[in-house]
Amino acid sequence: MMSMSIPPYPRRLTLITVLFGIIVFVWLSPDEQGWLVIPLGIGMAALVAAHAVFRLGSRLGRRPIPVRWWRLGVVALGALIGAGSTLTTALLMLFKSGLHQHVFPDYPLIVILGILERAPAWSLAGALIGLAAVLILSRDR
């Protein structure tokens, strides 16, 4: 039976996280584009997931994971990133609106709730992206 293991924690992930934090800090300026919040929310969810996966890998120690569990895990991780993207996007919207305290908020409550309402669709999209990754990676095996 084939198996895979999670590689060691990459140092580059810390650098990517710091750079992402700088991008979010710049985005928090009052006159920044509103559409950028969705890619930032997706990126934040993906970074949280990456840190969680590599932390799990360090706890497992290089123990092999059966391929069928690996495949299921990638699809589930995609679904979690998709659902988490709605949460992180909504939190970024809420944070920016609360930080600036304009008379008219950057993101009205109805817009924030609209993003949260998309959680099932984004979760399905993430699962399908995970499935696509599994199919692409399985093609070589």
In short:
The chain is mainly α and 141 residues long. It has helices spanning 11-27, 37-60, 67-100, 109-117, 119-138, and strands at 3-4, 65-66. The protein has a two-stranded antiparallel ribbon.
Layout of SSEs?
Layout: E1 3-4, H1 11-27, H2 37-60, E2 65-66, H3 67-100, H4 109-117, H5 119-138
Antiparallel strand pairs: 1-2
Helix pairs in contact: 1-2, 2-3, 3-4, 3-5
List keywords for this structure.
two-stranded antiparallel sheet; 141 residues; 74% helix; mainly alpha
Description:
The chain is an all-alpha fold and 141 residues long. The model has no long low-confidence stretch (mean pLDDT 88). α1 packs antiparallel against α2 (37-60), α2 crosses α3 and α3 (67-100) runs antiparallel to α5. The chain is 74% helix and 3% strand.
Helix percentage: over 70%
Q: Main beta sheet: strand number and arrangement?
A: 2 strands, antiparallel
Low-confidence stretches: none
Q: Tell me the β content.
A: under 5%
What is the radius of gyration?
18 Å
Q: Mean of residue pLDDT?
A: 88
- How many angstroms separate the termini? 12 Å
Instruction: Output the strand order for the largest sheet.
Output: 1-2
What structural category characterises the helix and strand content? mainly alpha
- The counted number of beta strands is 2
Specify the overall morphology. elongated
Order of helices and strands: EHHEHHH
Number of helices: 5
